[in-house]
Amino acid sequence: METILHIAFNQDGSCFCLGTRKGFIVYNASPVQILSQRDFNEGISIVEMLKKTNILALVGEDDLDKKDSDFSSDKLIIWDDSLNKRISELILNSEIINVKIKLDKIIAVTKNNYLYVVEISDLEIKNIFQIYQSLFAVSMDDKILVLAFPYKHSGYVKIKKYNSKINIPSINAHDSNISFLSLSHDGNLLGTSSIRGTLIRIFNTSNGEMIQELRRGAKTSLIHYITFDLNNKFLACSSSSGTIHIFSIYNSIKYLKEKGIIVDNNKNSLNKKENNDSNNNEEIIEQPKNQKSFIGSIINVLKIGISYFESEWSFAQFRLPKTEKEKAIISFSRVENSINVLTKSGNLFKASFEPSSGGECTKISEINLFQLFKENKENE
Question: Which domains does the chain possess?
Answer without folding.
Answer: 1-130 (2.130.10.10), 133-263+287-380 (2.130.10.10)
